[in-house]
Each structure stands twice: as structure tokens, then as C-alpha cells.
Amino acid sequence: MEIILAIMIGGLYAASVYMILRRSLVKILIGIVLLSQATNMLIFVSSGITRGNSPVIKAEETVLSQPHADPLPQALVLTAIVISFGLTAFALALTYRAYKSVKTDDLDKLRSAALGGEENV
Q: Which segments of the chain are extended strands (E)?
């Protein structure tokens, strides 16, 4: 199972790098989202895939007697997902605002519009 997930993570990293190298702001944003999801999967897979119960100690016990899933990677990934969602929403709002003001999402045209219409090569 880890091999399949490792191949999928590599594919997500490759797709994200490809999208980040495009000139469109929307494609760059999609690439950043893919990169964050691939990193979340990498953290989750590197902790080891185990079948176990939730790590909750019952009132009558002092230690866990059965195999349990490690909660730390799950907490890290959940936190990363929430932060990534907030950053993605903010970047999407900035991209929308840039598109409304300049009428393009091409980075070269945005750069020339920011420089006052000068063509710098």
C-alpha cells in the first residue's frame, strides 16, 4: 500500500511543479494546492499506515492495551489542511482582484501593467 501511495505522491509533486511553472495565476494557485496536498499525504504515509483504534484511554485503564493509530501525524495533517484552506481562499481572492483590475491572469502582462506598461525583457 505504501508503494502505491508513494507513486501517487510523486505524481502529485510532478503535477504541482508543472502547474507552478505555468504563466497563469489560476494554474499557479492550483499547483500550490496540489503541492500542499502531496505534502500532507507524505506526512501521513511517512508515519506508517496502521490499522488501529483511536488512541483514547478509557477511564478504567492506565495505558493502551490494543494497537492504536499515532495521533500526531493526523493532527499535523489536519492543521495543515486548515491553514492551506485559509491561504488558498486568500490567494484566490487576490487572484480575482488582480484579474478584475487588469483583465488578465498572465504573469507577464500583470508585470508590465504594474510597471506602467513598460516592456522589460
A: none
